[in-house]
Amino acid sequence: MTGKMDQINAPEAFAECTEKKRRRLLEWIAESLVPASRGYRTTSYALKHSFSAEAGLYVTNGEFKGAMLAAGYAPIHKGELNWRFRCRATRKLTTAA
Q1: Cβ(55)–Cβ(67) under 8 Å?
Q2: Scanning 46, 70, 80, 94, which has the fewest C-beta atoms within 10 Å of its C-beta?
Q3: What is the pLDDT of residue 39?
Q4: Residue 61 covered by a domain
């Protein structure tokens, strides 16, 4: 990672999270998302805001992308800044205000 923007969006940031934050991210993903054959139109950026609103913990886009990888979800287009995944929500997710 070369700069602050890279750190904010790099999935490697997940490994630098506290154990508590990593565990809570993975729990939220397991509770909120399930695999799907089609891509979810919501991006990692929007999902991180849903997580933060529901869990009360701030995460960066990179931390959330890394959590999705750790949970077994691969990005559809890894070259995009805000990733989309083949998953669907198990319920209506909180959206950013």
Answers
A1: no
A2: 80
A3: 84
A4: yes
Total tally of structural domains belonging to the chain: 1
Is residue 10 in a domain?
A: yes
Residue 18 lies in a domain: yes
User: Would you state the torsion angle of the CA atoms of residues 96, 3, 40, 86, taken in this order, to the nearest 10 degrees?
Assistant: -140
Provide the pLDDT for residue 1.
44
Give Cβ neighbours of residue 21 (< 8 Å, ≥ 6 apart). 57, 59, 63
The domain containing residue 52 runs over which residues?
A: 4-87
pLDDT in tens, 19-75: 999 999 999 999 999 999 988 889 999 999 999 999 999 999 999 999 999 999 999
